[in-house]
Amino acid sequence: MAAPTLPPAGAALGDALRQIVALQSQRLRQHDSGTRRGEDPEALHSMRVAVRRLRAAVRIFAVAIPIRQREAFRRELHWLGESLGGVRDLDVQLVALRTYRASLSPAQRGGLAWLEPHVRRERTRRRGAMLVALDSRRYAILLTRLERFATGPRGPAQPAAAHDLLATAGRRILGRGAKRLLQRGNAIAAGDHDVTPEDLHALRIRAKRVRYLLEFLRELTGKPGRRLVKRLIRLQDLLGAHQDAVVATAFLHQATSAAPMESAGLLALGAYTEHQRQRAANARTEFRRAWCRFARKRTLEDLRALLRRLKALSRANPAPPAMPSADAAALPRDRTGV
User: Fold this and answer.
1) Which of 63, 147, 189, 260 could form a disulfide bond with 334, CB atoms 3.0-4.6 angstroms apart?
2) Angle, helix 263-294 to helix 67-102, in steps of 10 degrees
3) Count of C-beta atoms within a 10 Å radius of residue 298
């Protein structure tokens, strides 16, 4: 079987979505065994990324999926993402903890000697729950349904919007999603209040959706699209580091009950918790500068050039012939943003 590829310019939206689902479903299976073995944390990371991309595709191209099927995919992919995410979060924390301890003196390092075994015990517990999920009938059914959707033929069961040209739909969705991202980021950066963790987490989600959309449209977007993706990745690096520190701080607060009662252990935990809190605060301070670098004139020019490019592709590629849709009357045009 040939490897799935990204959709071409002349693809219908429904056909493009099936290609994306095929590619990411293949990656789920590709990294499944490595995730189960647990020898390389990158297998779990790659599997989690595939789930995120599937969730993004279902959300971004929601109009191309029958309502009941769409909601089932959203629910089940969220469940799978949660099952994988708890273990991955602790993998990230273990790396951060080792890096921090390596920067300490031997005496200071000893005060945190108990913490890595504690994190590992919690990881073992979460990993056990993850393996139960991966061994479940629920997971097997989800994979089967994703693959059936990916290989299924075009037909009357599709919503009418599934027959829209990818370039046309992509331009509409990108324009809306980029506008919301820029408006939200500008409002946070220009605000006279301190940037909050909730502000940056919400913005990170918006940025990730726009990036995934651009990557789904990679065969259509050319150099402007590639430049935008690079800038989004740089922005996401900062927002992701902030979120990692926020998650670590919350976990360390919970770990207080497991800390040794002697003062050295409690003091070391307090110092490390403050270190993570300061990392998050530094990222929030850096955000305004990072946003100004992202939302500069070149980004706006590339976005406008990309929208013009998609418009030209829409005109150059006539829409595929529409087929009667079984649920067209019941399915209003979805206004969900990117």
Assistant:
1) 63
2) 120
3) 14
β-partners of residue 165 are 12
- The span from the CA of 90 to the CA of 94, in Å, is 6
Overall average pLDDT of the 240-265 stretch: 86
Q: How many CB atoms lie within 10 A of CB 47?
A: 24
Task: Find the largest Cα–Cα distance for the chain.
Answer: 74
Name, in order, each residue with C-beta under 8 angstroms of 146's C-beta and a sequence gap of 6 or more: 21, 25, 28, 54, 73
Nearest-5° angle of CA 158, CA 164, CA 169?
120
All domains in the chain, ordered by first residue: 9-152 (1.40.20.10), 165-317 (1.40.20.10)
The Cα–Cα gap between 114 and 101 comes to: 12
* CA atoms of 75 and 337, how far apart (whole Å): 18
d(CA 185, CA 203): 7
pLDDT tens-digit series, residues 205-226: 999 999 999 999 999 999 999 9
pLDDT tens for 167-203 read: 999 999 999 999 999 999 999 999 878 889 999 999 9
Please return the burial class of 144, using the count of CB atoms within 10 Å of its CB with bins 0-12, 13-18 and 19+: exposed
